[in-house]
Amino acid sequence: SSGNNISFSAAVNGAKTLTITAGTGSITFSSTVGNSAALTSLDVSSSNATGISLNDTVKTVSTQIYRGIVTVNSALSILTTNSDVTFQSDINLGGSLTINVGLGNIYLVGNVAGNSGVVLSESAYEAAVISSSPLLYLPLTDAVNSTSASNLGSLGGTATYTTQSISGGPGRTTGMFDGTTALYVPGSSYVTYPTNTSLNPGSSAFTVVAWIKNNSGGNGIIWNKENQYEIAVQNNRIEWALANGSPGWQWINANSYTPTTGAWTQIVFTSTGSSVNVYANGAAIQSSYAVSGAIAGETGYGFMIGQRGGMSQTFNGGIANVAYYNSALSAATILSQYQAGTTGASAAVNLSMTGANINTTGSSINTSGTQTYAGALTMATGLTVTTSNNKVDFNSTVNSAANVVRALTVSSGSGNVTFTGIVGGASGGALGALTVNSTGATTFSAAVT
Predict the structure, then answer these.
(1) What are the strands, taking DSSP E only, across 293-413?
(2) Cβ contact 171:196 at 8 Å
(3) End-to-end CA gap in the chain
(4) What is the mean pLDDT of the chain?
(5) What is the pTM of this model?
(6) What is the average pLDDT across 7-30?
(7) Rg (Cα) of the chain, in Å, rounded?
(8) Average pLDDT over residues 14-24
């Protein structure tokens, strides 16, 4: 085509060479390429700003050449049988990308930019929670000395703060997101939402979500509806109880999971009426725990956060974004909410490259997730590698191109950085400078020149 768009809406297969030239038109592969029958080779060319859109795995026996901007719209792999893959322009990652060329080489002529997901904010997280229709949702981001907390769930109304210590109460600890605060519970400070029959699940399904930032030895109640249901940090682990037929009103250990001290941790409890799941940070820590019998009815105690009704068992730490649903949230929804509170509503975008040599001409490779270089990295220009608090692994050597001294900067936030091979040891391959910006561990297993 001299300027029209070219789209493949279904899979492309066959042991043949495929060459596509779209001029100023775009090229879109909506499904797999060569997945069931690998292509011999692939050569695609587009000068369009959208360029070449990939949505699933691309597999060839021989070379692949992408002459134009490549947009990866979902997690996929680019595979060859020991043959080169060349990207002659930028790569925009909307999903994780795995490139494996065996003994072939990878050429990155442009930059790589990975989608970092939705910008993290309290408002974005609240939208993710509300989209699943909670009955009760208390962000608990209120200012110091606030006396009430608004319920953003469908039941409406407000919860009441009880502040019994100058060190505790609303606004006394930093929140989950920049510029926000949260409830700080020490000193018998807590929140109570008044009794409501909609919060009595009986034999029906329900879910409670809470984020906690516990202090060292931070035991105590996270949330409680006395003589009905509750969850806590006890014995330095997550435990829960239901006032039903079985297991009855006793503490159940959630597989000895211990929240990390001083870090915000998502804790989710779901019950279908016959089975309980407990999640931490989007992943199940206890699955399909059998329960039976209706949970006891109204006992006159409200839904409490940071304390239990009729007795003192105060939590020790911060609590934020507590929600109650009259359904058992799916694992996918729980993970999505966790991601909305950590990496953004989109999953972290990872980049993994495996080949004999990985040759870069672009100046930056930026992803929200991990980066893995399983091949000898050679830089023709200075390179900046960036992740959003995720690890970077250089599993082979790292060098400047011959006699063109180049600098490498790695910024990984709290992610670890590992150099397995020699850095700058090739003839004429010394680096101009090496800068690692990481609060995680940086490991060198060989010499650095």
Answers:
(1) 303-305, 317-325, 351-360, 364-366, 371-379, 383-386, 392-394, 398-400, 406-413
(2) no
(3) 49
(4) 93
(5) 0.56
(6) 96
(7) 27
(8) 96
